[in-house]
Amino acid sequence: MAEPTRFTDDPAPHVAPAEGPLAGRTVAVTADRRREDLVGLLRRRGARVVEAPTMSTQPLEDDEELRAAVDACVAAPPDYVAVTTGVGFRGWLAAAEAWGRGGELSAALARAAVVCRGPKATGAVRGCGLREVYSAPTESNDDLLGWLLAQDLAGRRVAVQEHGAPMPEFTAALRAAGAEVLPVPVYRWGPPADPGPARGLVAAVAAGEVDAVAFTSQPAVEGLFAQARELGRYEELVAALRDGRVLAAAIGVVCARPLDAAGVPSVYPERGRLSALVRTLEEELPARRS
Known about the structure:
The chain has helices spanning 35-44, 64-75, 86-98, 102-110, 119-127, 141-149, 168-176, 196-206, 218-230, 234-242, 257-261, 274-284, and strands at 26-29, 48-51, 56-59, 80-83, 113-116, 132-135, 157-161, 180-184, 187-190, 212-215, 247-250. The chain folds into two domains: 26-55 and 191-287, Rossmann fold, CATH 3.40.50; 58-189, Rossmann fold (3-Layer(aba) Sandwich). The model is unreliable at 1-12 (pLDDT under 50). 41% of the residues lie in helices and 16% in strands. It contains twelve helices and eleven strands. It is α/β, with parallel strands linked by helices and 290 residues long. The longest helix has 13 residues, at 86-98. Residues 37-278 form the Tetrapyrrole biosynthesis uroporphyrinogen III synthase domain. InterPro entries: 4pyrrol_syn_uPrphyn_synt_sf, 4pyrrol_synth_uPrphyn_synth, UROS/Hem4. This is Uroporphyrinogen-III synthase. It comes from Peterkaempfera bronchialis.
């Protein structure tokens, strides 16, 4: 494999130790949150790492829509609360606390049936002193929605903590079942603060100069595709991912959906954990070309 591209807007890739299951391999990390954790895991296994965030997470602590959602939950507590991410749930309560309504919001949520998308959301709920009645085993919104729709939602209030973007299909299905839906936007996904590294990654992938690209969220995949389209190199990028020159590794099946839609094969672990993603790379990369 050729030496990795040195991005003009990004530091040179980390020079990894010569030993470890990923020694001699270059892995690009596209994450915004918890990027350092993933980078550390990869480096300890010998990988050379290129850090190229393809999106950003923008908190909405001062957002009027979030403030209105907090006020609405306090004024008329929901019957059900759908928690989609741990960071989002904690951010929701932190924003309420900053506005002097943390105790009131916690009391309102304690009266509701709380349902969680997976272990991270469940951990955040329990960490705030609440208990869930359901945690989706597949860690997917589809599972979460299916459980809710199995309940009698006629006339019930359902608060839905969004995770980075509106959830129109999710909320429409709840409304069709008779629920009153209260979306709770805690943060939004946006383009990377510095697009230089992501654009450099587009060129590196198109040239086959990295062995794998690790994705930890759908927006990270979509962000890389967006950068490629802006540069007029989308087809080159996708071709390199499709023909096996570069491995696309996702943290889970939900994360992989934009790759599937683009016809890009991908690998992902059964459990959506950073350590499991790294183990998947350890298993897949040695079997590929040097």
